[in-house]
Write a structure and sequence with these properties.
By secondary structure, the protein is an alpha+beta fold. Among the domains are: 190 residues, Barwin-like endoglucanases (Beta Barrel); 35 residues, no CATH class. The strands form three sheets. The chain has a six-stranded mixed barrel, surrounded by four helices. Strands 5-9-4-10-11-12 form a six-stranded mixed beta sheet, covered by helices on one side. Strands 6-7-8 form a three-stranded antiparallel beta sheet, with no helix packed on it.
């Protein structure tokens, strides 16, 4: 059969099939059901934290009915120490200006101790930032074993590297970093990289610590004492931070069900790390933040104001929400932390309104109290009356 004949036969067959199809109509299927599209669930966005205290909102509150003399006297000493810096420091919180403090600092310099309680109650306006709900932890001045020279098994305690600078990264943000070989601002080395030798061999070793776990917690406290084999003591303080994220390892242990809620005290965290050395080392490295130290030769330890901090008188606070140098009243559920304090320090984990870290000094009692401190309550900031009036009137 030729190609044309095959084509004619095929066409005839298709025509007959089409006729047969018209004689027997196919069943009619129901039209497809069009369902409205189901929108994805709306996940509520967590609002960003306010940029400072003014944005969080400020309200006047009445002064505390009771201010014990011992609270007030400690706070007066700390306030006097802070005044020279307070009167020239740029305030990030928006609550006060340097000149607001001058009359109060002048008056504080002449007060007798027994006048302190009246001074704090009557000469300041007391304000609440946001809802005032406060959470306070504790820190102390630890003492660890160490050496001025390298010894087997000891780990270095580093000074601040000169290549850790403030620079502008490619994403436009400015912060701590380093300039790489191409001239680009990049993030500084992480804890793991530093521990693995990223800054070794540059003469940055200030001393050596016998126990890396003790050194880790010395970093968290920000200052402390190194006791040498001959019994001498080096006091060290915060010199700088690598600019990487601070991660609270106690929170990680709670989230992973390793430690119970409310059970992540410093003592229990240390005990778990020592009982699980490999996992403990990995856990500590999840905290990317690393602290560099300097030797302190005068009174100390020093806080963020570069003045000595006061045991049971100093709190660390977020300077975006509390003017550093301002008195703070904590009404919390831990009696040890209840009372008047002065904001003289900052901390990597102390962020946001009404978040505080209470300082307890050195020694076994300070270690015990600070390690287990977790206090809830309210916080009031004591401001110069002129500053409080502006803050409350802020739209």
């Amino acid at each position: 059969m030729s190609f044309a004949s095959r084509a004619f036969a095929l066409a005839s067959a298709l025509l007959l099939a089409a006729c047969a199809a018209r004689l027997t109509p196919p069943p009619v299927s129901p039209p497809p059901v069009t369902r409205p599209a189901i929108p994805p669930p709306v996940v509520p966005l967590t609002p960003p934290p306010p940029p400072n205290a003014l944005a969080a909102g400020v309200a006047l509150v009445p002064p505390a009915a009771t201010i014990y003399d011992q609270w007030a006297e400690r706070a007066l000493r700390a306030f006097r120490t802070s005044c020279p810096v307070l009167m020239r420091r740029q305030d990030q919180s928006g609550l006060a200006q340097a000149q607001d403090w001058a009359p109060l600092c002048t008056e504080a310099a002449t007060l007798a101790p027994e006048q302190a309680a009246t001074f704090f109650r009557d000469r300041f306006d007391w304000v609440r930032v946001g809802d005032g709900k406060a959470f306070a932890t504790g820190y102390y001045e630890p003492e660890i074993e160490g050496s001025r020279v390298p010894l087997p098994g000891y780990v270095p305690i580093y000074r601040l590297p000169n290549d850790l600078v403030r620079c502008t990264k490619q994403d436009g943000t400015t912060g701590r970093g380093r300039i790489d070989e191409t001239g680009t601002c990049v993030l500084y080395f992480t804890r793991a990289e530093i521990e693995d030798g990223a800054v070794a061999g540059r003469g940055l070793e200030l001393a050596w610590a016998k126990d890396p776990v003790d050194l880790f917690f010395l970093e968290i406290q920000g200052s402390g004492r190194i006791r040498m084999p001959d019994g001498s003591v080096m006091r060290v303080g915060y010199a700088g931070q690598n600019g990487r994220e601070y991660v609270a390892i106690g929170r990680l242990l709670r989230e992973r069900g390793i430690l119970p809620p409310g059970g992540a005290s410093m003592q229990s965290i240390k005990a778990w790390i020592r009982a699980n050395p490999d996992q403990g080392r990995a856990l500590m490295r999840e905290n990317l933040s690393y602290i560099f130290f300097k030797e302190l030769t005068g009174p100390g330890p020093l806080g963020a104001l570069n003045v000595p901090v006061t045991p049971h008188g100093t709190v660390a606070a977020d300077p975006k929400f509390v003017p550093l140098g301002a008195p703070i009243y904590l009404a919390v559920d831990r009696p040890e932390a209840y009372g008047l304090w002065v904001a003289q320090d900052t901390g990597g984990a102390i962020k946001g309104p009404n978040r505080f870290d209470t300082f307890w000094g050195a020694g076994p009692d300070a270690t015990q109290i600070a390690g287990g401190m977790a206090a809830n309550g309210v916080a009031w900031i004591l401001l110069p009356k002129s500053a409080a009036a502006r803050a409350v009137a802020h739209p």
